[in-house]
Specification:
The complex is a heterodimer.
Chain A lengths: L2 E2 L1 H15 L3 E5 L15 H5 L4 E3 L4 H13 L3 E5 L10 H8 L2 H4 L9 E6 L14 H5 L5 E3 L4 H13 L4 E6 L8 E2 L13 E4 L4 E5 L3 H14 L4 E5 L2 E3 L3 H11 L2 E8 L4 H12 L9 E5 L7 H7 L3 H13 L2
Parallel strand pairs in A: 2-3, 2-4, 4-5, 5-7, 6-7, 10-11, 10-13, 13-14
Antiparallel strand pairs in A: 1-8, 6-12, 9-11
Chain B lengths: L10 E2 L15 H4 L1 H26 L13 H10 L5 E3 L5 H6 L4 H8 L23 H15 L6 E6 L6 H13 L3 E7 L2 E2 L2 E2 H4 L15 E6 L3 H16 L5 E6 L18 H9 L2 H11 L5 H23 L19 H17 L1
Parallel strand pairs in B: 1-7, 2-3, 3-4, 4-8, 7-8
Antiparallel strand pairs in B: 5-6
Helix pairs in contact in B: 2-3, 2-11, 2-12, 3-9, 5-12, 6-7
The chains are: A alpha/beta, B alpha/beta.
Bound molecules: thiamine diphosphate and magnesium ion (MG).
Thiamine diphosphate sits at the interface of chains B and A.
GO biological process, one term (chain A): branched-chain amino acid catabolic process
GO molecular function (chain A): branched-chain 2-oxo acid dehydrogenase activity
Pfam family, one (chain A): Transket_pyr
Chain lengths: 326, 359
């Protein structure tokens, strides 16, 4: 079986579900003949036609708004925001409408759309192409907010997102789009959208992360292992709704927790994880919770961006601080 | 039924693709061959710069770069028609307009080279920086125009947006505000036929992009964007009436993107070669050169000499860019607020300590 990258897994999931369900329609800028600026929709236009793989006029308000309308009328639109920095005009339709049709109409209407968002920094992109803005969405009731970090999770979680009866914001960590390949059978098997994944077992400290930072966090766990520290690594994967139990179980075992994310620190999603730990795991902890995050600044242009993104070095140092504290 | 209103869109061209004059009413500036030569020289400079910038990206010395190949006439006309105290709100490839306004080539390179200091350019300090979130600059220009109107300043705001960008709510809102408020705002759509891979026909069912201004109540004009004389004449007209309180105007400059969208794009994937080849026949440099040569104010010798001069100037700029040291890590923090809040001071100190430990 062919080995595929994360982005190829996304294409595979889209193709699978479009073949499976005639109501699935892909729309966005450059998703058609061009196959998406990252090639996520490569070949779909040829396979499914321009009615189901729609190049839209260049207006994010239009893309989000018509996706809402289609979804409410029984279609399964998968809309693409070309880059993280361009979702902001979409927020109106997502927050005021997609997220609350079910609530507003007491269940009469729903809005099963998926918004795919290539996410995050580290690819030497121009301005506004490197935003880690997941926390803008995790504060919105009615949304699911997910971010896969491997080819197989991308495939299974995108299938689940399309099949989910509620709106899903599907963040794609573009820095690891092509980081590595793995075998991803095109079996149509969805993954659950309410669990964290334990990627590595450990006993001394729990490292909690998501998205592209899974890479650095696993590397940090390797580095710690060389120094005799056993780190457990959790990929949150679905940020909202959060599977806190998996994180709690791990912290019960390790007593220490380091949260790693790329987004700015203040009110980043790590604050939610830390708050839950404060509420529920106070007596399991033997050291203060640490956060390794982006700074409370704009992500710099690329000459400085690697100094902004959490590094292996910073993660290892934070883990060691939790060990030194007890 | 009676007719409530009727509209038409005029198309302006002076120089056709072969460099022949198609109208006899040459505007004042174009009767002065010297002035035309100066504008042509700027266009040639832009092209030399653009070629060099693409080469820098290809050799790994520049990040993603948006070429302006084919847009020289439109851009230089826009920049040269404006006064220093007018406000320019560009998108991301209007180097021709910006060079005229004092922006240095090295600053363009810094911007695409991943250094924020490119945005702190040598052009007018009130000009807006490059604007990547499509069409948002249109509203900022309308806002600037509103400020001029409120303060009774005889200034004009000019924005540029693409054919793709003219689909965006921000574009419509800006031109509508200009119509509603009689703002000194000139909105230029540089219609280069493509928005990355999406052709103009997919953006709208409208026959012209210029007519989008009709519903807003501003004057509209479609111009041959490859004809420097027509572009400049249109800009002069629009800016003059705006400055004199007659309100906004929408200009559609019809041109062609001869390059890939950016260096990260490969247009061969979606665009027929024949179309590009045909567009080269209409490009802006050749027709103006032909015209100036026929007027006996330009020659191959002039061309060669000036090109060599441009290359020298560009080399100096490129070297200045390449020699620019990366900003220190503190620069990540120091411009977020007017004054650094204590909370951020702590983070800044951490980043500095980490940097020092790395050595
Ligand atoms: C709001 C927003 N959406 C998407 C993009 C990505 N993008 C960059 S340029 C571009 C096409 C712009 O086409 P057009 O407006 O015609 O201008 P051109 O680049 O052709 O000059 C797109 C979709 C963006 N920068 N901003
Ligand atoms: Mg265009």
């Amino acid at each position: 079986m062919a080995q595929i990258t994360l982005i190829e897994a996304i294409t595979q999931a889209l193709a699978h579900e479009m073949a499976n369900d005639a109501s699935v329609v892909v729309l966005g800028e450059d998703v058609g003949v061009n196959g998406g600026v990252f090639r996520a929709t490569a070949g779909l236009s040829e396979k499914f036609g321009t009615q189901r793989v729609l190049d839209t006029p260049l207006d994010e308000t239009t893309i989000a708004g018509v996706a809402v309308g289609m979804a409410v009328q029984g279609m399964r639109p998968v809309a693409e925001a070309q880059f993280d920095g361009f979702v902001y005009p979409m927020v109106d339709h997502i927050v005021c409408h997609a997220a609350r049709f079910r609530t507003r109409t007491r269940g009469r209407l729903s809005c099963p759309l998926v918004l795919r968002v290539p996410w995050g920094g580290g690819i030497r992109a121009p301005e506004h192409h490197s935003e880690a803005n997941e926390a803008i969405f995790t504060n919105v009731p009615g949304l699911r907010v997910v971010m896969p970090s491997s080819p197989s999770r991308a495939y299974g979680m995108l299938l689940a997102a399309i099949r989910d009866p509620d709106p899903v914001i599907f963040f794609e960590p573009k820095r690891i789009y092509r980081q590595y390949k793995e075998e991803v059978p095109d079996d149509g098997e969805a993954l659950p959208l309410d669990v964290c994944f334990v990627l590595r077992d450990g006993t001394d400290v729990t490292l909690v992360t998501w998205g592209a930072q899974v890479k650095e966090t696993l590397e940090a766990a390797d580095a710690l292992a060389k120094e005799g520290v056993s780190a457990e690594v959790i990929d949150v994967a679905t940020l909202k709704p959060l599977d806190f139990d998996t994180i709690h179980e791990s912290v019960k075992k390790t007593g220490r927790c380091v949260i790693v994310h790329e987004a700015p620190r203040t009110a980043g999603f790590g604050a939610e994880v830390a708050a839950r730990l404060a509420e529920h795991a106070m007596y399991d902890l033997v050291a203060p919770v640490e956060r390794v995050t982006g700074y409370d600044t704009h992500i710099p242009l690329f000459r400085l961006e690697m100094k902004y993104l959490p590094s292996v070095e910073r993660i290892v140092a934070a883990a060691k601080r939790t060990l030194a504290a007890s | 039924m009676s007719i409530a209103a009727t509209f038409e869109i005029e198309y302006l061209q002076y120089l056709d693709a072969d460099g022949k004059l198609v109208r006899s009413d040459l505007p004042e500036f174009a009767r002065d061959a010297k002035q035309l030569v100066e504008l042509y020289k700027t266009m040639l400079f832009v092209r030399v710069f653009d070629t060099k910038a693409v080469a820098l990206q290809r050799t790994g010395k520049l990040g993603t770069y948006a070429s302006c190949l084919g847009h020289e006439a439109a851009h230089v006309a826009i920049g040269s028609a404006m006064r220093e105290d007018d406000v320019f709100a560009p998108m991301y490839r209007e180097y021709g307009a910006q060079f005229v306004r004092g922006v240095k080539p090295r600053e363009v390179l810094m911007y695409w080279g991943g250094d924020e200091r490119g945005n702190d350019f040598s052009g007018p300090a009130h000009d807006f920086p490059w604007c990547v979130p499509i069409a948002t600059q249109c509203l900022h220009a309308a806002g600037a125009a509103l400020a001029f109107k409120i303060r009774k300043e005889p200034r004009v705001a000019v924005s540029v947006v693409g054919d793709g960008g003219s689909s965006k709510a921000d574009f419509y809102g800006a031109i509508n505000m200009a119509g509603a408020q009689t703002l000194p705002y000139v909105s230029v759509i540089v219609n280069n036929q493509w928005a990355i891979s999406v052709p103009r026909t997919i953006q709208t069912g409208a026959k012209t992009l210029a007519q989008k201004g009709i519903a807003a109540g501003v004057e509209c004009l479609q111009v041959d964007g490859n004809d420097l004389i027509a572009m400049r004449a249109a800009m002069d007209h629009a800016i003059k009436r705006a400055r004199h309180g007659h309100g906004g105007m929408l200009i559609e400059a019809v041109t062609y993107r001869l390059s890939d969208h950016t260096t990260a794009d490969d247009a061969r994937r979606y665009r027929p070669d024949a179309e590009v080849k045909a567009a080269w026949e209409r490009e802006p440099m050749k027709r103006l050169r032909t015209y100036l040569t026929a007027q006996n104010v330009w020659s191959d010798k002039h061309e060669e000499a000036w090109k060599a001069e441009c290359e020298k100037i560009v080399d100096v700029e490129v070297n200045a860019y390449l020699e620019t040291k990366t900003q220190p890590v503190e620069a990540i923090f120091d411009y977020v607020y007017a004054e650094l809040p204590p909370d951020l001071t702590a983070q800044r100190a951490q980043a500095l300590a980490l940097e020092q430990r790395r050595g």
